[in-house]
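Design job #97: recover the sequence.
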């Protein structure tokens, strides 16, 4: 079936997820004259973010939620986070769980969850923006007509950034986006997506990138057609705190935190642990994380089989998905965090571990290269279990020499809540000033 036909049919449906008094506002386009906010007023920001926590997936896009919450001193944000439309007859648990998500909820800020059509896997990737836009636009129109927005902030350039740019043009207000993902080779693999992104770029004031290396990747993809600025992900320095006097630390416990996907390199860490089996027989690995989707779950099964084949079942504990509070407690009580990724644009868990006062051993996979120094841990090549094993062994030997306060200060000063709020405020101010 032609995706455009699907969009036309679905566009005619009036969504039942807003108060009844808003529904008659969907018929006509919204046209407003943009008035820059006064110096005393916080700009009203419309956040478009498909990656945002919800009751079905409470850890999805935590980095986005943290940035939204930390924008409250400088802005008045409202979030539209589209989720897949699941027909009532769908029996698959991984899909049916989306039906449990309310269409609107208040969690520090107002969050709206319009249902949008999606294709299987990446089959309709090039049409994600086109299929989602009518439903997101209808919610945004009602909210904007009730109280106009000053700025639109999209998270990830596609589809949310492309949708954000269309809404910005519709309302005559500036647009910024945050990017977490590589544009190369992705845009080269999806030329239709590339065309949509390139058409949107002139309407985007700034693409906030989480690291210098990601900024370089984006400029390699589109040249100087976009302005980038590094605004790293936030470490919640209240939750990820320094250990209290008397809090114990297990000097034989290694920690891995993250989605269990091949790109995260847990298999590399398991092989490194196998190499340490003789020299460090007491060392164990705690794995916090799981897979949201079926493909990720297959990756987890592969790692579990590797653990069994190497005879490490009694030394690797898969604890499953954990709340941020549980992750923070595990970090404070572990010897060190290991980030064995094959590729990372940032690495939030690295900053969280440092803020918790533990060193980090990571691969030179991108983001950690800009965070870690020899005083904070160690960096090793990717895809190299022997090098990773050696670095873990040496870091465990050095454990008493690490200054836990220095570890924490290095993260909080650069990535803490106050630091990132300040950076975000600067980007918002420039975007608003340029449009005014």
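Job complete. Output follows.
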């Amino acid at each position: 079936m032609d995706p455009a036909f699907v969009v036309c049919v679905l566009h005619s449906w009036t969504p039942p997820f807003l108060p009844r008094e808003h529904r008659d506002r969907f018929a006509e386009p919204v046209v407003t004259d943009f008035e820059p906010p006064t110096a005393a007023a916080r700009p009203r920001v419309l956040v478009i973010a498909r990656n945002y926590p919800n009751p079905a997936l409470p850890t999805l896009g935590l980095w986005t939620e943290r940035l939204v919450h930390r924008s409250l001193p400088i802005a008045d944000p409202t979030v539209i986070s589209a989720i897949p439309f699941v027909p009532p007859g769908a029996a698959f648990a991984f899909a049916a769980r989306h039906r449990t998500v309310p269409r609107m909820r208040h969690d520090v800020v107002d969050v709206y969850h319009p249902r949008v059509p999606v294709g299987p896997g990446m089959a309709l990737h090039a049409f994600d923006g086109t299929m989602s836009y009518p439903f997101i636009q209808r919610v945004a129109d009602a909210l904007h007509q009730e109280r106009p927005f000053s700025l639109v902030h999209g998270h990830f350039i596609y589809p949310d950034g492309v949708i954000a740019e269309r809404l910005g043009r519709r309302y005559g207000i500036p647009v910024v986006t945050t990017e977490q993902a590589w544009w190369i080779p992705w845009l080269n693999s999806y030329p239709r997506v590339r065309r949509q992104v390139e058409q949107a770029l002139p309407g985007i004031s700034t693409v906030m990138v989480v690291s210098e290396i990601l900024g370089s990747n984006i400029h390699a993809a589109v040249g100087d057609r976009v302005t980038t600025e590094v605004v790293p992900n936030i470490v919640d320095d209240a939750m990820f705190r320094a250990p209290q006097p008397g809090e114990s630390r297990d000097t034989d416990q290694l920690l891995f935190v993250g989605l269990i996907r091949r790109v995260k390199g847990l298999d590399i860490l398991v092989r490194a642990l196998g190499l340490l089996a003789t020299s460090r027989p007491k060392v164990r690995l705690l794995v916090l994380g799981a897979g949201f989707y079926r493909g990720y779950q297959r990756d987890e099964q592969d790692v579990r089989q590797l653990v069994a084949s190497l005879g490490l079942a009694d030394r690797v504990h898969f604890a499953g998905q954990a709340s941020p509070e549980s992750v923070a407690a595990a970090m404070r009580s572990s010897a060190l965090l290991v980030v064995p990724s094959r590729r990372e644009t940032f690495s939030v868990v690295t900053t969280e571990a440092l803020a918790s006062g533990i060193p980090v051993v990571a691969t030179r996979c991108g983001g950690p290269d800009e965070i870690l120094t020899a005083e904070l841990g160690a960096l090793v090549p990717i895809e190299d279990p022997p090098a990773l094993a050696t670095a873990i062994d040496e870091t465990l030997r050095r454990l008493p020499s690490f200054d836990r306060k220095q570890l924490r200060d290095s993260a909080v000063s650069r990535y803490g809540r106050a630091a990132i709020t300040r950076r975000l405020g600067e980007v918002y101010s420039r975007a608003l000033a340029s449009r005014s």
